[in-house]
Structures are given as C-alpha cells and as structure tokens.
Amino acid sequence: MSSPTAPGHTARWSGGVFCGLRLYTRRGQSSTVRALSEFHSGAATLHTGPIPDGSEDVELAVLPEDKPTYVQVSTLQASMEEAAAQELPPFVPLPPEAPLSIALVPSHPSPQCVEGTPACASLQPDGGKFKPQTRSPHDAAMEKERQSVHHFDSSTHHYGDFYSTSNTIHGPVTNVKHIENAYFPTRNQDALLWDTLPRQRDLSGQHCEYLDGSREDTAQYVLRWAKDPTGAATLFIYGPAGLGKSTLARHLTHRLRVDGRLAASVSLSGIPTDARGPASVVKLIAREIGERYSDAIPAILEAIRLCKDAPLEEHFERFLRDAVSSLKCPYPLIILFDAVDEWQSFGTLIKALPGLSSSASALRFILLGRLDPRARGFADASMHLYPLPPVSKHTMQCYFNHQFNDVRWINGQRPSPSQTTQLAELANGLFIWASIVCSLLKKRLSATTPNQTLEAILHSRRRLGENESLAGLYHQALLWLFPDSDDQELAQKYLGATLVLQQPLPLAAFSSLIDLPAHVAEEIQGALTALQIRRPADEHLVHPSVDLFHLSLLEYLQSKSASHGTPFSVSAFDAHSQLAELCLRKLPQCPPESPNLTCIRLSPQEEYIVKYLATHIQHGTPSVSPASSMEWEQTRHRDILQGLGVTQLRHWGGLLLDLVGSGYPLKENYADKEIGSLMCDVGAALGVGLFRIPWMEVAVRLQPHNPNIWYELGWAYCIRIGIDDSDAAEKAVLSHGNMLDIVKESGGSDRGEALLSLATSLHRRFTVTGNTEDVDRSISMHQELLGMHHHGHGMRGTILSSLANTVESRLKMVDPINNMDEVISIKREALYLCPSGHENRPSALRSLASSLESRFKTTACSTELDEAISLYREVLELSPPGHSYHAPALQYLAFSLESRFETTACIADLDEVRETLELSPPGHAERSSALQGLAFSLTSRFETTACTADLDEAIGLNREALELRPPGHKNRALALQCLALFLSYRFETTASTADIDESISLGREALELYPTGHVRRGGSLNDLASHLLQRYEAQGDRHDLEESISLGRESVALTPAGHLDRRYAPGTLALALRFRPEDLDESLCLRREVTSLMPPTHSRRWEWLMYLAFVLHCHYEHSGVVEELDEAISVCEEASSLCPPEHYLRPKLRNLQAKLAAPRSSP
C-alpha cells in the first residue's frame, strides 16, 4: 500500500507518451475488460471482451505506432455481483483483495519519450530508432523489474469511498473502466508537463446532428475564405440564438479537418469551470493543437516552460502562434471558436487576434457568436463579419421530415405536408425551436400523444406573437412536462439549483444537497431531457444547466417574460442564496478528535460544499461597503457563519487548501473577531486561481471595516483584469476606494499604501476603458503620494516608477510624440533612488533607456541616444547570460548602436554590434535579432561609404535572419521588409533587375502579414510603394506607377498628422505623383510637408531636401516659373553641402544638379 502523493487530487497518476504501447492483463477466471485511451482523435475502445481462463497474459490492445499517445489510467471497477457480495456500491475503486495485474509495455517508444520508457522494455537502437528486445509478452509482464500500475485516488467517485493501491492491483472480478494515466518510475518530464494543460470537456456524441446540405452555402463560403490568401485574418459568423451556430461549428470543424486546414476547434461553452481564464483557455487550445499535430508538441512544451507568470500576450504568441508556426504548413491553419460571447473573457480574445494574425500565413480564426461584435466596439478592419441568415423554409421542412422518422406516431399517422409547412413557418429559421418541438414529439408524455402535442403546438400560433415564438414554446413545453402545480414548484427548485451549480454531482449527492428527494430529482431530470440540446456524458450525474440546455432557455427562465404567468421563473441571485444557505448548514464538521482531518474522506457532496460555498455566498448575498453592510447583516448566511465559529471556519479553509494542493500553512489561532482575516488568509493562500476572489468577498462581508482585506480583494481583482476586463477593473477600483475611505476615517498610517493601490487600479481601469478621467485621477494621486514621501523615503522609488508608467500611458493616447520630458524626468529620479546594488536598478535603467531612445527618434538629439546606449550597457553588466533582462538588453543595445552609427559613422559602434552577434551564436534565441542589428549597421556604413562589400554582407546576414524567422514567426514580416530594403539599395548601385524584382516580391509578402488594421501596415505599404516607384523609374512600366500611387495613398491615410511615420509616407507618394502633371501641385505640397517634419540636425535631412528639389524641378518643367527653378537649385545646394562625400546616392544628387544647371546655361 502506498499513500497518494497529493492527497485529495482527482484520480491522478503520473504518465508517459508512447508509440505502440501494449496493455496486458492476467486473470484466473472469465470477466469482461474494457480499456480506453485518450487518443489525439478522442476516446477510443481498445479492447472489449472476455479474458480466457488460465494464467497466461492476454494482450488487450496495441496503441498506434505512427504518433505518440499519452496513456492515462483511472478508475478500476468491481463487477455488479462482487460489489453486491461485499456490500460495495458498483463502480467504485476496488479494495485490495484477490489477484489482478496490469502491465503496460511499449513496442516502439517515440525517440523524444525514451526517458519515460518503463524498465521492462529492453530497447535496442535500430537505425536511429528504438525497438524492444524480442521476448514473449508473458516474459515481459512477469519480469522482476516490470512496472506495475500505481493507483492514486481520493474522493471523486460515487459514495466518497477512498482506496489507495499500488504495484499489483488486487480485487475480485474486475473491469478497467478507463485508462487515464499510467505511472512509470522513470518519469517522462515532458509527459508530466503535458498533463498540466487543461482539456476541453468531452462533448462528442452529445449534440444535435447536422442536416446534410442545410448550411452548404455557408460552408462553401468559409472554405473559400480559408483558401483566400488575401482574405481577412478573422471571420466572425454571428446570428441570434437558435439558428444552429454550434451545429454549424461542428460541421465546419469536420470540413476544415478534412481539408487539412484545422488547427483546433474549441467550444467556449464547454470549458471546465476551473479553466475559464484566458491563459487557461490558451493552454486548452494548445492541447487541442498538440493532440491533432504531434509535431507541435515540442513547441507547446517549450511554451509551458517559458510562460510561467508571463503576460497574456506571450501566452497567445508561444502557445498558439509559435506552436502552429512550428508545423511549417504552407497555408494558414485555422482555430475555430464557438459560443464566444458565452465566455466572460470574450473581449480579451478579440483584442488579441490582430496581433496573433499578423502572420497571416500561419494562423487564422473563425469565431461564432450571437452578437454583432460592432455593437460591442470590437470589430475592426482585420475582421470580416458574416451575418448567419435563417435557413429556408424548405430546409426546415426537410429537417422536420427527417426527425419525424424517430417519432412513435399513433397508428403511423405522420403529419400532413401542410402541417409540416406550418411548423417550418413557425420555426422561422430557428433550429432550436424545431429541435425542441421534435424532442417533445419523441417524448412519451403520459397525458398526450405525439399527434395531440403537434396539434397543440400548431394551435399556439394563434396566441403568440411572432417575436415570442421561442419563449412561447418554452412556456408551453414546461407546462406540458410539469402540469401539476406541485410538480412545477419542485421543477422550479431543480432548475434554480442547476442554474448556479458549479460542477456535476452524483444524483444522490445533488438531491441531498438541495433537500429534494432523489426519485423526484430523477423524474425531473428525465422530463427535462425533452429540452436538452446536449446529452450528458454520464447520466448518473446532475449537470449544470449551461452544460445541457440552450442559452436561450436559460435566458427565458430568468427573463421578465418568464416571471409573468409562469411558475418556472428563476433568479440566479436567489438560487445562489438558497444553495449557499444549504451548503452552510451541511458544511463538513471538524471532529474534536481529528482537528487536522484532510479532504481524503470527503463525500462528493462535502467536496462540492468545501469548494463552492464561498462562490454561492459571493453571488447570493448583498455586497457590502464600509458605510453600508446592513443588508448583509440581516441575512441568515451571516448568522450561520458567525455561529460556526473560528475553529470550524479554519477547518473549512484547511480542507479547501488540501483539495487544491496548496502547501500554505494557516495560522493556528484566530480570535473570534478575526474570522474575516481568516477567510482573507485562505484566499491569499489560494493564489490566483478560481477560488481566491470568492473567499475574499466573504472576508469583506465578515469584516467590512478591515482595510487590509479590501486591499487584498482589490489586488485580486487587479490580477483578474484581462480575464474579465471591465467588471474586474470596476471592482478593483471600488475595493481600493473602500480601503482608502476606511484609512481616511480612522487616520491610519497606511494612507500612502491605500492611495498607491487606488491610483494603480485607476490606471488599470484606464487601460481597459480609455477614460482619461481615471488616468488624470491616478496621476493626481501619485503626485499627492510624492508630496507625502519625500527624498530618502523607501517607497518614493516605487511611486515614481508607477507615476512614470501612468503618465506614459496617457501620453500614448493623447500625444504619442511630444511631452516626453516629464516621463524622462520622473524616470531619472526613480533611477537615482535605485543606487548600485539595488534590486530594481536593472529595471529602472532599462525603462529610462527606452524612453530616451524613443525621444531620440523624434528629436535626433545624439546625447539622448548616447545616454541610452550607456544605460543599456549597464543593464548588461547587471544581467549576466540567463538573466531575464540579458537577451532584451543585448537586442536593444545593438539597435541603439546601429542608430548611432547611422548618425555618426563611428566604426567602434559597428565593431560593438559585431560583438553582440558573437554573444548570440547559432542556436541562440536572439541570434536573428543580432544578425539584423549587424546588417543594419553594415548598411549604414554602405550608405556613407558606398562600399558594396558591406551591403552584400548585410544582405547575406539578413537572409540568414529570415531563415531563422520561418512562416508564422512573429518577426518574419520585419525581416522581409529589411531584406527588401537592402536589395533596393543594391538596385540603386547595380541596376540589377533581379534585385528590384525580389525586393518587390518580399515587400508583397510582408504586406500580407500586416492585415488591415495592423499598426505596421502603413509602413509596409510605403515600403512597397517605394520599391515599385524605383522599378517604374528604371523600366517605365505604367502599372508600377499606378500601383505605387494607390499604395501610397493608403499609407498616407494610415499615417495622419502627428503620426511617427508621417515624415515618410507622404514623401514617397509625392515622388510618385510628380510623374503625373495633373498631380504636381499635390506632389509639391506633400513634399514640403515631410521636409518640414525632418529636424535640421537629422543626419538624413539632406535626402529630404534632395527629393524636394526633384519635385520642384518637375514642377518648374511643367509651369516654367523661374522662382521654382531658383528654389530647386538652392535646396539642392543645401542638400549637397550636407550629403556625405562618398554616399551611394551622391551620383543621383550630381545628376540632379546638372539638370537644374542646364536651363541656366542654355541660351
């Protein structure tokens, strides 16, 4: 006997990933054994059948050898007869008796998983692969070192019985119900990592079937979109409830899978309760991708390792984009999300998609939901909207006729064609209406026949408005199912409880919890199957209603229309309240003799109470504030909690911490008046998971005048911003505001902490809502804090850093170019407060350097760039290889040096850039950035020296960088743009047609990776317009000129006045327009504008002057105005005086000077 490694965890074993795994068992008498495995394609039966008498091993199954399969093992079951003989309920873990053994032997383990191979497999290399040494299954199974199955289980099975077994599992006649996890002493770390990924609930076989051809037009549209490389990155299919969107989603999943374009398909209504945060959903999707494409598993495992505590954006990039990119598919793969607006983090997903789809060749998205995203302000140009129309009346008639085949009509009397037509008209394109009608007709109702039910439904049309047909159907169906008033009252109780139920419960446990007789609950459950759209995977459980019913039914039950004239109306608040009180009264008691009892002996009902009581209290009782808690104080919940006492409440908290595996120790002794602090401590110990906020919400109800609890609750909501943006942001501000009110009233010493917390929450809410009143209040509070914490105070540095971030956020929204002085000043003081040796100094250095470099880009002030370079060097000194700041600082330093070399042509800077490349050898994560940094520096030297060897080396380096950024890489577009730019430089000196053609080709590919709405699309448009203009000037193809002008206009539209790229886009368009006489005035106007935007001290100002002279010359040639010629000559002379003597464009400048001089020299 061995003890569970993590008491209280659900049937969890260690596991391994294997190819060709064989499952053996020995049995002394006949029985039936079933083995299931979680394949990439879902659960599949491996073996069902009798085991022959005797002692020989029986091979139950051989897993596929073509891909790794993660094998898991869970519940062993006693047969019905043996369970009864031992007075055990069926389907429970077996007690340790009588012999049974199971051996798992790999036949061909995947090479990457050899570390996790059981010792019983003697592996021999065979041409780079591995194969087992030849021997009989019996020898393998009986070998002394054979690895037996270890079973760790706790309280998740029926009746709460707990058994722990290991090595040889003993029991009477047995079944293997489900292989969920296999244990091997040599653990495969990759497999253990993989097991940390959440999985989607298995809803296969639980949905309505798709009617062939019913949505073929939509399916064909989607397939065309999927194959169109110029299509939008995201397709949003939306329509009202009941149109069959989820059925369509499953059909599209099938079609895309057959077409080889599906990455993953996820129903956001089928996410487990404990995995509904954005990061968890991202991991769930990654698991779906890995189970479909085993080649993506290494990238996903790497994401698990790298994304611990990483921001959400990095989760999206590494788990999804990088995983799909690793497959190197020649066309985009698609992730399909169904029921997106049934997920609370819908907004977070929508905001992340444009960045994810910037590499359109790797990843695209299909979303299905009810609401037009434009109504929520989410739609942008990168999203194509597809309003799903209702199906035709003919399609609906076909659906009814198909479903009528399964109805037990009286005397075979099927509906007449006219009745079917009437039903189709009543359905009005709503499949959910038709589906429920057919369910009612198929159900054996005691009082009515299917024919009578049909007549009643058709008759209802005369009583219902067309807009209320679905609500009317629900109303009538519920009355048919529960005609008696007593039945209706019981059904209402059942519906209310399941509306707020947090996880499935065994029928007996559910009935006991809500004080409803089990046979009554079973009858109600059976009756409601007529309204279900999904069939439960386990019919012995009571499921949350959201898992079984269409959302429109749940909305109907809670709507005003349901509260008038129907006994079935339910309130989520009231249901939570009732369930909270029931849970409180049945909370597991702390036995005096065992005060430290763990969760091992909890029944399913008790485990549910321990986990979700706080959630029901949070959502079923009035909220409080320091000034108002009277409503809460009048509730029975408050009285019961107070009456339980601190010992019992501590026991509750200990059980929950035990269940979730937290090793956080609670304080032994809490005073009776500290029960709120106790609840808060438990919430803090729970980390950032599902249960933290409910416990803290209960804590503030118990001690509403405790500022520390409001502080913790506010930060809990701050962390949640991004999971449930707007609501969490509001509650974070409210909680920290309450803390500040308490501190003000009491005159406490922690006023500064309260102000900083509220200022931070306001800043976070500003990032969600964009309301400048919030950020202004935040800045004001930071300034007040600075007045309270003078120089030398320990908190001043933290306040300054927070203030700088807040001011910078505001500037990005209202003034992205100017007014950086205040930010830099604040960051300087923050750095001053982090002297040498301070733990925050690297962060302060990097922050100030970044701001200085940003300002240099607008002012061209070389001293700011020099200081930024110096600061980055110090960051590198303080962050050795392996430190989280080392690689980014190396990259930033390289680009800063390149910028300075471009300005000063200092060879020492170029040499230092070469050193950064040496610090990033082949295989280094930042090598591609280092290659590109050196390539830019070499190109800068080529520009000033015209040394073609430098340019050739730069092109070679950039080609290598591009190879390290394959299709799907987040920086591939930038590498494409850079290579295209360098090739265009070489074309200027060599006139090589191949160079300019490749430059244009690369520019087109880069533009495809910046879909409409992407922040960098304007710059990419301008680059391609410039390359096309170069080819037009060399070859004279009018199509190149027209395309250049078209792209240029689009680029200018994306770079309005004040935009950082405004000095570039209008200039390129101006140069193209000068070749069209009718556009010469516009050309000159645009060229003057961009020249005025180039600072007089900028190293490239002479180029802007040269191009202005080009336009002035063209204007003069058309108008003959001598003043324009004079201005062109003057501007050209200024450009010549500023141009480096050996610059590769000086020949072009000399040619222009000669052209300008010609009119003066002619008679």
From TrEMBL:
InterPro entries assigned: NPHP3-like_N (IPR056884), P-loop_NTPase (IPR027417), TPR-like_helical_dom_sf (IPR011990)
Q: Is Repeat among the key words of this record?
A: yes
Entry's Gene3D superfamilies? P-loop containing nucleotide triphosphate hydrolases (3.40.50.300), Tetratricopeptide repeat domain (1.25.40.10)
Q: Where is this region: Disordered?
A: 128-149
Q: Which UniProt keywords apply?
A: Repeat
Compositional bias (Basic and acidic residues) at which positions? 136-149
Q: Which residues form the Nephrocystin 3-like N-terminal domain?
A: 222-370
Identify this protein by name: Nephrocystin 3-like N-terminal domain-containing protein
Name its species. Answer: Coprinellus micaceus (Glistening ink-cap mushroom)
